[in-house]
Amino acid sequence: MRILVFGAGSLGTLVGGLLASVHDVTLVGRNRHVSRVSKTGLDIVDAESAHVSPAATTTETGHDADLALVTVKSFDTPAAAEALEACDVDAVLSLQNGMTEEVLESALDVPVLAGTATYGARLVAPGRVECTGIGRVVLGVLDGGTSPLAERVGKAFRDAGIRTLVAADMPRRRWEKLAVNAGINAVTALSRVENGGLAAGEASEVAHRAARETARVARFEGARLPNRVAREAIDRVIDQTAANRSSMLQDVEDGKRTEVDAINGAVVDTAEQYDYEVPTNRTLAALLRAWERGEGLR
Ligand SMILES: NC(=O)C1=CN([C@@H]2O[C@H](COP(=O)(O)OP(=O)(O)OC[C@H]3O[C@@H](n4cnc5c(N)ncnc54)[C@H](O)[C@@H]3O)[C@@H](O)[C@H]2O)C=CC1
Ligand SMILES: CC(C)(CO)C(=O)C(=O)O
């Protein structure tokens, strides 16, 4: 399969690098990293280990591919969609956190698959990416159900050794992931604790409230996500990733823009369509945006 990876940062470089062992992969990213990869290849280290040589470029348009994998941060999705419009790709798959697939779908006239990834990735130097945890990619049709395209992409991932599930219930899975991220990411970022710090106490209650509100909004949207399932999901992730610093906590510590708009912001925006109040998500989004506008960003 010819695969374009749009956003060769941590996750895109790891997944694109793994795919490059059996597929024709082009990484689209920023200069020092892509020039190192095109000169000397890419080292994948830690939980996965490989040396691969995908094509790598800073040129965003004019590519021809069977699949474009979108792995930019959620706030860069509109720019990615614009660049992909000027490429000839047959299908798109997002592995991003937050509700980004709708942005891609409204801009592009090719099928957009939904995806979630629980692999951990960290770009530690140009040409070198750490796999900090082997997780799983789950992908499927955005509105649910199955399709030959989703099966083909799932097989392409599995052929490359990536643990992958093709799921028929992506609407529920996306909302479940959003509930987990709405609770854990914003609360850990604001209280500066690792994920395990949400196992009990006041911050834990705030995280659970945000997840519960998200589950309610998911049900308005037709996704089958009972509160109990959302609670079990967030508890499981807190337990399994106790030592993690969430991606949003890392962004805040690094003075970088967060994905709050596509996570808590998306819950607030969707809830408004149903005249439903989500005070916890609204407060978390407001505090993070205030931090971004104020002293936070470097
Ligand atoms: N890093 C991880 O372990 C995981 C990340 N995710 C999600 O994956 C997404 C990406 O996360 P990371 O890889 O950590 O972020 P990152 O910031 O390391 O990577 C994004 C990359 O996209 C590049 N980029 C942005 N706009 C571009 C453009 N127009 N053209 C070319 N390159 C462009 C940026 O320069 C950056 O290198 C996020 O939504 C994140 O929440 C999900 C699961 C795990
Ligand atoms: C699942 C979780 C919360 C793991 O840290 C994550 O997705 C993130 O940090 O963005």
Name the descriptors.
single chain; 298 residues; alpha/beta; Rossmann fold; N-(1-d-carboxylethyl)-l-norvaline Dehydrogenase, domain 2; 2 domains; eight-stranded mixed beta sheet; four-stranded mixed beta sheet; 14 strands; 46% helix; 19% strand; globular; binds 1,4-dihydronicotinamide adenine dinucleotide; binds ketopantoate; NADP
Explain the overall architecture.
The chain is of the alpha/beta class and 298 residues long. The protein has two domains: 2-166, NAD(P)-binding Rossmann-like Domain (Rossmann fold, 3-Layer(aba) Sandwich), CATH 3.40.50.720; 170-296, N-(1-d-carboxylethyl)-l-norvaline Dehydrogenase, domain 2. The chain contains eleven helices and 14 strands. It has helices spanning 10-19, 31-40, 77-85, 101-107, 148-159, 170-191, 202-220, 227-240, 247-253, 264-273, 279-296, and strands spanning 2-6, 24-28, 42-46, 50-52, 55-57, 64-65, 67-70, 88-89, 92-94, 112-117, 120-125, 128-133, 137-141, 164-166. The strands form three sheets. The chain has an eight-stranded mixed β-sheet with strand order 5-2-1-7-9-10-13-14, sandwiched between helices. Helix 6 packs antiparallel against helix 7, helix 6 (170-191) crosses helix 8 (227-240) and helix 10 (264-273) crosses helix 11. The longest helix has 22 residues, at 170-191. The protein is globular. The mean pLDDT is 96. It catalyses: (R)-pantoate + NADP(+) = 2-dehydropantoate + NADPH + H(+); (R)-pantoate + NAD(+) = 2-dehydropantoate + NADH + H(+). One of its GO terms (cellular component) is cytoplasm. It is an enzyme of class 1 (oxidoreductase). Residues 171-290 form the Ketopantoate reductase C-terminal domain. Its EC number is 1.1.1.169.
